[in-house]
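Q: what sequence does this backbone want?
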């Protein structure tokens, strides 16, 4: 295995092991919480935070899986970087969509 692959994989490994930064809601999401029914405001906030956390976890996991697949598959440096980017994008979508349960889906659908 070529040493350059480890150089390419190092940023993803550091990203995966770094402590999670404090997550905040965007302005639009804060407005969505404020517009929600008063009984549902806490649930909307918690569900939006769960989606954000799932998206971040999926991005890290997908990027790492893409880089690992590129390294194991013997791709060039460019191919490994592309595999990592595609994996991160797919992981974000999957993580964001699967991080909430049916209750959260109902609450977010009811309070758009």
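A:
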């Amino acid at each position: 295995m070529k040493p350059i692959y480890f150089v390419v994989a190092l940023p993803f490994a550091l990203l995966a092991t770094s402590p999670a930064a404090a997550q905040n809601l965007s302005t639009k999401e804060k407005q969505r919480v404020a517009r929600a029914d008063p009984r549902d405001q806490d649930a909307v906030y918690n569900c939006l935070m769960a989606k954000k956390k799932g998206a971040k976890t999926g991005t890290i996991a997908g990027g790492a899986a893409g880089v690992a697949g590129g390294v194991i598959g013997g791709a060039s440096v460019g191919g490994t970087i592309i595999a990592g980017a595609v994996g991160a994008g797919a992981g974000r979508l999957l993580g964001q969509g699967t991080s909430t349960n049916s209750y959260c889906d109902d609450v977010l659908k009811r309070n758009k």
